[in-house]
């Protein structure tokens, strides 16, 4: 595997951004992490239902959905 010194600048930029995003997501409070999981479920469930009828989106009381998630 190549070290970060031998990777082209664009790939290095992408890997650095990916690492920064992981740190940002890890530092989120738990309610925000749950919101992220529910948003991923909203995106995945329509596809998963074709294979598994039990796929569903968590229904969590008090979970507010922002307008950009709708």
Structural notes for this entry:
By secondary structure, the protein is mainly α. The chain has one domain. The chain is 53% helix and 0% strand. The chain has helices at residues 9-26, 30-48. The longest helix has 19 residues, at 30-48. The radius of gyration is 17 Å and the shape is elongated.
- State the helix count: 2
Low-confidence stretches: none
- What class, by secondary structure content? mainly alpha
Classify the helix fraction into a percent range.
40-55%
Per DSSP E runs of 2 or more residues, the count of β-strands stands at: 0
Number of domains: 1
Tell me the series of helices and strands, N- to C-terminal.
HH
Which term fits the overall shape? elongated
Instruction: Give Rg in angstroms.
Output: 17 Å
First and last CA, distance:
41 Å
Describe the sheet with the most strands.
none
Overall mean pLDDT score? Answer: 83
* Percent in strands: under 5%
């Amino acid at each position: 595997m190549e070290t970060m010194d031998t990777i082209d600048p664009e790939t290095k930029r992408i890997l650095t951004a990916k690492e920064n995003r992981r740190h940002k997501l890890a530092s989120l409070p738990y309610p925000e992490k749950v919101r992220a999981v529910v948003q991923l479920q909203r995106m995945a469930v329509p596809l998963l239902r074709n294979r598994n009828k039990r796929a569903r989106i968590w229904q969590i009381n008090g979970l507010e959905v922002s307008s950009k998630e709708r």
